[in-house]
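Morning run. Coffee first, then this:
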Amino acid sequence: MWWLYWLIAAVVLGIAEAYTLTLGFGLLAVAAVAAAVSAGLGAPVLVQVATFAVTGGVGLLAVRPIARRHLQVPPLTKEGSDALVGREAFVVSEVGFSHGVVHLAGEDWSARPYVDGLVIPVGARVDVLQIDGATALVHPRDAALGGPGVGWGESLSPPADPPPEQPGLNP
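And here it is:
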């Protein structure tokens, strides 16, 4: 009759595992099944408890850390639109606030500038900074178009002329 108690305990632990997804209750459910098997073979209650304790302990101390390590590994490759972030694209139709098209990864994508108010002309090379649905948010590579550095303290105007040379002061 003890085998039935162990099976009920295994089902309860399995249900608890389904709600928590911690792997701990699942390993204890397996240990309860092992104890039920030992009870079905006619082992005394002390042996059944020892079977449960040893099987559960081995599962919790050895298997669970390995399984958790494998579950927490991030994917090695990006898939879908995530793989497009960081890639270079080519502007096919002027990219403005609400419209624009870029050629990205062999396809034409709708696009808009990452920085509001920026207009990117046809032919410009851009970086894809984000994908929003089916729209690529892009930023130009060329500083003259508002690329890296612009808006962060740099100016779009050309550098100032060097000071005129003064005769006799320069070697």
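Residues 149-162 have pLDDT under 50 and may be disordered. Good start to the day.
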